[in-house]
Amino acid sequence: MIVRLAWRSIWRNRRRTLITIASLALGLTIAIFFIALSEGVHNQVVNEAVRMQAGHITVEHEAYQAAPAVDLFIGGVDRLRRRIDGMEAVEATKLLIRGQGVANSSAGAVGVAVMGVEPSVEAGTSPLARHMVTGSTLEDGDDRKAILGEHLADQLKLTQGSKLVLTTNNARGELVEELCRVKGIFRIGSDEIDGYLVQIPLEFAQRVFGLQPDEATQLGVVLKRPSELEATIGAIKAIEREEYAAVLPWQAVLPEVASYIRLRRTSTWVFQSLLFIIILFTILNTLLMSVVEREREFAVLLALGTRIGQLRRQLFVESAFIGILGCVAGMSLGGAAALSLQVHGLDLSGFMPGGVDLPAFPHDSWNRLSTAILQTMLFR
Which residue among 38, 88, 124, 273 has the highest number of C-beta atoms inside a 10 angstrom radius? Predict the structure, then answer.
């Protein structure tokens, strides 16, 4: 009886009930949409960052994190790599040689981060391959070739085919100068990355830094599903018995990126919490208005012997009906909006006339993030 009375009561003032349900549904739709958008941005930030670096998991020398240097390399990577490639959760593995140096041209010299990569693997995993503006990305078999950022190319007055001299120290501490040619120029959208990153083929990097074919500063692992990170780390540790090697998640290799994600996620949930509080006050206001308007009705019911507990249960059921209807409508609309966002994306170019090559990134946030990535590469 209480359920029937509650259902009939909420529709006695149809307009008020519909407005309350609409308010709840709209608030929930907005919350779901922005949570989906925020998580999508976070996932894209992580995906772009880790794929530009070593991947979701990195195997490196245990002392490399404290003082990155090219002489802190790991050996026997071919054997370990074959075993990791056989894991079901692994999408790809990649060898990296990372160092610092100076890029020289007739126009001047600039300090750069030098990254030796496997061209075929990098083309399938790194975002750089999708952001070439001149020339092409590196290919297997390339020797003495390099790709660099557009801002760095402008500083050194370089174009496709120009000569570039890299000056650095090898693993034995010897000063090395190597001549190469610019094969392509990329533009990520950040002056920090576009102005300091140089990629060269792995074999060329091994010669430059004096490493053997089975040696590299990092062995990276890109996962099919990031949710399997911890399980895969455990599996790699079970087969990697070298005392000097460390198996690290991307959060340890890129702590600035992890902190950025935690900060953004926390701010999102704070905003959503405030939104829900506002919605709850809206529902409370509706129920209070309903109670005030029905004072005579409740007085009659009490005079007929209705207990106060029954009236309270009726009001609770009324609020539950309104909440359920609003939540169902809100989750349906919010789920549809999130699905549309996942399938079709969201074009923000109209709000960014200056242009950003990485979709869904606020330009200043991406610049801060890329600065953190570059600092990790150069000075971690």
Answer: 38
